Input
Amino acid sequence: MKKHNFSAGPSILSPYTIKHTAEGILDLDQSGLSVMEISHRSKEFIAIMDETQQLFKDLLDIPSGYSVLLLQGGASLQFCMVPYNLLQTKAAYLDTGSWASKAAKEAKLFGEVEVVASSKDTTYSYIPKGYVIPSDADYFHITTNNTIYGTEIKEDMDVPMHLVADMSSDIFSRPMDVSKYALIYGGAQKNLAPAGVTFVIVKDEILGKVTRPIPTMLNYQTHIDNGSMFNTPPCVAIYAAMHTLRWYMDQGGLAAMHKLNLEKAGILYDEIDGSPIFTSNIGDVNDRSIMNVTFVMKEEYKEKEADFLAFAGSRGMSGLKGHRSVGGVRASIYNAMPISSVEALVETMKAFEQNL
Ligand SMILES: *Cc1c(COP(=O)(O)O)cnc(C)c1O
Output
């Protein structure tokens, strides 16, 4: 039986992505060769790279003057590349979780870092508001979706300095205004492809402003100048990403994905809010993620948590255990998750409530 995959990352991919990637691994477009064994400089792979970058631009409506890079090293290497390329004297960071805090930690190697606000005091259960960003910051860094805690910044904010966003776990979940950002990055393994490829969307004109020398591979300009082919790119992961993006297009683009995501998250939060035993740990409804839905058992049922996870497991649900730093339950309901799996989870929660 195919499982309902609620894993936080690497996570569910559409059956379309998996089927077409598998076909290309066996035989790429009847070429008699696998996508794993052709040159990245072949015309076949160049077409894959070009289409993937173009689909990024089409789906996200990326304005001209931006480059789409497909790199390696994960979002975690971007924690270092961003300040390496952009931090001359000072950067501002919003601390909304452990990924955000790891990003700020790397930036400290390159200059002054001001953490403008943090929700660490409540294990990151909310998105701080009303903070002041120092006007002399070279950029302001945010993590739009806090994968571990289930909070999300769902609107593109206006700030007077360059805005940099880690969108590892909510890219492609909604239409967005890329023009408000100077740089957006993320690992692919949540809403795009298997692990191994990292996307960067960067406004070209922000580069070349820092005075420090930058190692070739860590310099965004290298990858812009070479079309993400300075060295061998992660070919298979990019091939899979292309199929995911084709599938998003077929589904009606990001407006359609967003509508479905809101519907899925709505069904699940309604169940949590109406439940006698489950409750949300995210107080402000506006802060609740539509990608990672976290919840806990009410105090009097706390000891039943392991039983619930085992019960859900017996009904074909996988990956529901909350991150070790927060506990509880986390249902990651990325773009590829069908509404039927969310409905199955809600039925499981109701059945558990009734059997108590
Ligand atoms: C998963 C995740 C990361 C880490 O990504 P890697 O590719 O493993 O480095 C960083 N930020 C966020 C928001 C994530 O969800």
Summary: The chain has a mean pLDDT of 97. Residues 9, 74-76, 99, 143, 147, 166, 168-169, 187, 190 surround pyridoxal-5'-phosphate (CB under 6 Å). The chain has two domains: 4-12+253-355, 15-251. DSSP finds nine helices and 14 strands in the chain.
